[in-house]
Design brief:
Blueprint (H helix, E strand, L loop, with lengths): L13 H9 L15 H17 L3 H12 L4 H22 L5 H10 L7
Helix pairs in contact: 1-4, 2-4, 3-4, 4-5
């Protein structure tokens, strides 16, 4: 299983990617002056769609359905799922480690609580 990333998402500077990803979804301490990177958001949403379409992992689709049933809009639910995706992308790029599927699935199951690194 991969994260479903396309070849266009390979930032040269992981720290820049991290700063941009922080603007992806507001959480406690979110700097409202940061501009959301719509291209990054769209790319993360594409990753989520790829996982849902491939049913790999199936927990992505199950999490989307659960969040929708809890009253989140599709956009909000994908933002929440996107947080778990971003944790894995950052870890893989920054630490040159393989994707941690177990952590990713655990983070999906915890949503809407903030994902654990």
């Amino acid at each position: 299983m991969s994260l479903g990333l396309n070849d266009n998402l390979v930032p040269a500077d992981v720290d820049v990617f991290w700063k941009v990803s922080v603007a992806f979804i507001p959480r406690t301490g979110y700097d409202k002056t940061m501009k959301v990177n719509e291209h990054l958001r769209d790319t993360i949403f594409e990753v989520i769609e790829n996982q849902i379409n491939a049913n790999d992992p199936p927990e992505t689709a199950l999490t989307l359905e659960r969040l929708l049933n809890e009253g989140y809009t599709e956009f909000q639910a994908k933002q929440l799922i996107g947080q778990a995706v971003v944790i894995e992308v950052i870890d893989a790029l920054k630490n040159k480690k393989p994707y941690n599927e177990e952590r990713y699935i655990n983070n999906l199951r915890r949503l809407p609580k903030e994902p654990q690194e």
